[in-house]
Amino acid sequence: MKNCRRASPAVRPDVRVVSTLAAVIALAVFGIAALTSLDIAAAVFYGVVVLLVASAGNRPATIAAAWGCVVLMLLGFMISHNGAYSGGAIARCAVSLLAIAITSILALRNMAATAMLHEQVEMLNLAQEALARSTAELAHVTRITMLGEMAASVAHEVTQPIAAIVTCGSAALRWLNRPAPEIDEAAQSVTQMIRDAKRADEVIQRIRSMAKKRDRLPVTVDLNGIVGESIELMRLELERHRVELKSDLAAPPPTACCDRVQLQQVLINLIMNSVQAMADVTGPRKLRIATRRFDHEHVQVIVQDSGTGISEENSHHLFNAFFTTKAEGMGMGLSICRSIVEAHGGRIWAESPAAGGAVLQFILPVDEGRCHEQ
């Protein structure tokens, strides 16, 4: 509401200026028409007056201007001819009135079409906002579902540092309970406990970040760091499926301006998709994750597996919503990946190399200080 109140004063002076200018032109045209017999020329200028008022977008004012011009046209005609009306003069006056009427009707129709176009644009904007909200909601639900599927990995990631804390705590007590307490050894065990506690806290914070419902928050992100965190979260899943992982990370680490949690969601989705694609493979299950500079303006992340590959028939629909080749799949994982990547100004696509398997890759704009400008 505050924005509307501030915008109104900026519009009203324009309407008043246009109306005043139109009135001045109309009176000047009336004076010329009353003193001369230039009926057709007067009609042209009256048409300009109507169009000028219509440009302000005020329908009642445009109708009033049209009727005012008709009245002035008739008064000017009567004054200039002083009661001596020839057939030609009456015909010119009729044509002039018709010209004013046609100009007014076209101006009003144009105003109606413009108003309808504005309404359609507003409806389109509302629809786009609703679509963006729905996509964000769906991405959040998918993250929660994905965390459920990763429950074993999450438990493993948290249990490991907790078990290490217990071990180091017991060791510290043993060092302290000796006849001659080993303070340095006990301190080293306590330091290890603190490090493991921080590690457990980082795991929990990552899980909480993924589960949290919030707006997109672009920051400068180290792609190599995100890849490493995603691999750690998926470590147990990779071991359970006997997947041989190879990381090929660029140096120096490439950076991009994007939402850290959403980028991690994309990576985990792609890794899980590759793991599932290799589930029925009897040979070696190899997964390669790489980062590199794609060109001067983009950085690239590549997830390559040795799975069953992508058929030509499915390649065109792979990132469509609700498309899946898995009996139990929902067909939303890769679609959400595409939405997230494209929302960050990037592009995602898939390839099926001749050697077999599939390559899922995406590019993102290089961070060139844009995050600090937002």
UniProtKB/TrEMBL annotation:
Protein's UniProt keywords contain Zinc: no
For this protein, the record's PROSITE patterns field holds: HIS_KIN
Stated EC number for the protein is 2.7.13.3
Q: Which Pfam families match?
A: HATPase_c, HisKA
The cross-references to InterPro entries, in alphabetical order and at most eight, read:
HATPase_C_sf (IPR036890), HATPase_dom (IPR003594), His_kinase_dom (IPR005467), HisK_dim/P_dom (IPR003661), HisK_dim/P_sf (IPR036097), Sig_transdc_His_kin-like_C (IPR004358)
Q: Which superkingdom, per the lineage?
A: Bacteria
The protein's annotated catalytic reaction(s) are: ATP + protein L-histidine = ADP + protein N-phospho-L-histidine
Gene3D superfamilies in the cross-refs: 1.10.287.130, Histidine kinase-like ATPase, C-terminal domain
Bilayer-crossing residues are 15-34, 64-83, 89-108
PANTHER family xrefs: PEROXIDE STRESS-ACTIVATED HISTIDINE KINASE MAK3, SENSOR HISTIDINE KINASE
Report the protein name in the record. histidine kinase
Q: Which organism is it from?
A: Paraburkholderia madseniana
Its lineage reads: Bacteria, Pseudomonadati, Pseudomonadota, Betaproteobacteria, Burkholderiales
